[in-house]
Design goal:
The protein has about 90 residues and is mainly alpha-helical. It starts with 5 loop residues before the first helix and ends with a helix. The protein is built from 5 helices and no strands. It is elongated and about 55 Å long. It has 2 domains: about 35 residues, no CATH class; about 40 residues, no CATH class.
Length: about 90
């Protein structure tokens, strides 16, 4: 896809080759869709797998850490009810 030989890419990845031309580097970055690494999806917390609901006083901290999905607000639930009524 990049026109760069696979062995050259392997040497670059392993730090055994230096001096890639900027034009080739730009092609490589473009084919990789940028330099940002994909964020790994966090593993499912053990308590979710066990069906355990964490205590209320601890939920906000877990939501901020991304370990629990945000709880829907009352406004979101009202919008969903209106959508159901319009569809039905």
């Amino acid at each position: 896809m990049t026109g760069i030989d696979q062995t050259v890419i392997s040497r670059l990845e392993n730090g055994k080759q230096y001096g890639l031309r900027w034009s080739r580097f730009a092609i490589l970055v473009a084919r990789l869709h940028g330099l940002e690494a994909e964020t790994a999806k966090a593993p499912r917390p053990w308590w979710v797998a066990m069906g355990i609901t964490p205590p209320i006083y601890f939920r906000e901290s877990l939501i901020q850490q991304g370990l629990l999905p945000p709880e829907p607000s009352v406004h979101d639930e009202a919008d969903a009810d209106e959508d159901d009524q319009e569809a039905g």
